[in-house]
Amino acid sequence: MTAASKIENLSVGSLRFLSRNPDFFASVTKPPAPASFYSTVSAQIEDQQKRFEYHNVATCIATLQRCAQRNDAVSGQQVHGFMVRKGFLDDSPRAVTSLVNMYAKCGLMRHAISVTGGSEDHERDVFGYNAIISGFVINGSPLDAMETYREMRAKGIFPDKYTFPSLLKGSHVMEASDVTKIHGLAFKLGFDSDCYVGSALVNSYLKFRLMEDAQKVFDEMPERDDSVLWNALVIGYSQNFRFEDALKVFVKMREEGVSLTRHTVTGVLSAFTVLADLDNGRSIHGLAVKTGSDSDIVVSNALIDMYGKSKCLEEAISIFEAMDERERDLFTWNSVLCVHDYCGDHDGALALFQKMLRSGRIRPDLVTLTTVLPTCGRLAALQQGREIHGYMIVNGLLNRNNSNDEFINNSLMDMYAKCGDLRDAQTVFDSMRSKDSASWNIMINGYGVQSCGELAWDMFSTMCKAGVKPDEITFVGLLQACNHSGFVSQGRKFLEEMERVYKIVPTSDHYTCVIDMLGRAGKLEEAYELAVAMPVEDSPVVWRSILSSCRLHGNTELAQVAGKRLYELEPEHCGGYVLMSNLYVEAGRYEQVSELRDAMRQQNVKKTPGSSWIEIKNDLHVFFTDDKTHPEYESILACLSPLTHHIMSICH
DNA sequence: GTAGGGTTAG
């Protein structure tokens, strides 16, 4: 039993008794602990007690603050006993407040409550209420804080300027009208011009997206030289996706000479991260270096995120490498893992994950695992994915009734589906108590890519019956499923119903799926007509798809049209040239082939050879076209040939 | 009194 839980096990009643009978405090047992630890702590406490004999209320308060910082309820309790004996609590509301804060910060709210009265003979004053309200908010019970505030108001006790910031910190569980009411009272009492109250009000309004109210509070502040006030506005606009306003505030802040803090830097960086605005992100990095805030761990994490989301993996890595290994926190690791995955370095992401585990400093949490699972999926690393699943079970990260359930299970399902293990994906899916649209989408897509069109289709019907609204992604999966299974008329029907029945406007992705489906099925004219007539802009993907269908069905005329458009859209990309070249080779038009090769040389287009690979017992085996270098080449071929023949016999 | 990380398609 830990010292803190031992104290928590004393009932509130017994503590009240202790407060009134100071001598009894002396008999409270010392914390149980291993001998070496015990002797050190006990020596420290005795030492402190000796010093207290000569000390006053002020030193007690200072000690309590240290106890709170160190989460050391045991020493705090010793100080408590001493203060009771000396009668320090009787005439110093500040002393009571420090004591309450100490218990609250150590997570012992029941003790905090008992110290500040609550009994009939010992009424709580505004200081006591402030401490309790703040304690509830610190300990994640903002509703209790609100209740305490109402009780205080009902007793006719007026809040002071310290009440509002604490109370408003829990405003995310309130109604917007509560904030307005609190604001009204702060105004009446004249506290709304206090900069702490002001920034708390700005923050609360921003949480409810009431930007104009927040801006008004800010504009009416008599003194605006406080960074926190500005930071609140910058961060608020940023989080509400009003990046231009965030930047305007930031620029104005600079003009007015308000000093930047690490909070300003992270706030404004998050705007540039979402916008993937590398140039401005870099400027902020420069500013962070100038002001010295780049050494802050949160700033470093935000920089990793910014560079990564701008696809500058190397710069993200250099920030990560420059950090002190002991500073790197969970956020750092999660950011750097996510960024590797985002930039397509899936191998790097898995290697880093292994490094994180080996370092032993930071334990992966659910965010880490939900980041790494899709990476496993993309690499088809089923074994690693399974190990992570096992880790989650062993560490009790699953089966918890938390709000992240869908997130985690969706990542697991996706990993299994991408690795081709649809049975396990389905098992996870079936075990989920609540499913969101992503859960259904993952299964629909999973069945779709495995050419299990009917199963994908069934999933879709069940999803609709379960009352989950399909979204854009659902239809991408569904149309893909039709494509892979050759359900041409059904695919066409879904595209038409999307807008008419489900009120979802098809995007270029949806058209691309259908065009690809039509092309593969040999309906080249129809595919071409749709590409020309569709109400969205055409993309290289569309024409590459048509081009490869032309090759499949030997249509050189349409191929030339598609090839021309593809060249207009992306002259530097090799895909179009390769497709055209193969097509000309098959048609025996070797003159055009050499023309194409010249064009490629002129444009400096290079073709990276495609490869496939498989991982067996931690060994990676890679294969290129016409590559006979594998030591087991002969036996692989012996297995492969009958399979190829079998597939061909089914297809024809 | 203020700040940072995660799932589904293409």
Automatic annotation (TrEMBL):
It comes from the Eukaryota. GO terms for molecular function: RNA binding. The keyword Repeat applies. GO terms for biological process: RNA modification. PPR repeats lie at residues 125-159, 226-260, 296-326, 329-363, 405-435, 436-470. InterPro entries: E_motif (IPR046848), PPR_At4g14850-like_plant (IPR046960), PPR_rpt (IPR002885), TPR-like_helical_dom_sf (IPR011990). Pfam families: E_motif, PPR, PPR_2. Keywords: Repeat. Gene3D superfamilies: Tetratricopeptide repeat domain. Signal peptide: none annotated. PANTHER family: PENTATRICOPEPTIDE REPEAT-CONTAINING PROTEIN. NCBIfam families: PPR (TIGR00756). This is Pentacotripeptide-repeat region of PRORP domain-containing protein. It comes from Microthlaspi erraticum. The lineage of its organism: Eukaryota, Viridiplantae, Streptophyta, Embryophyta, Tracheophyta.
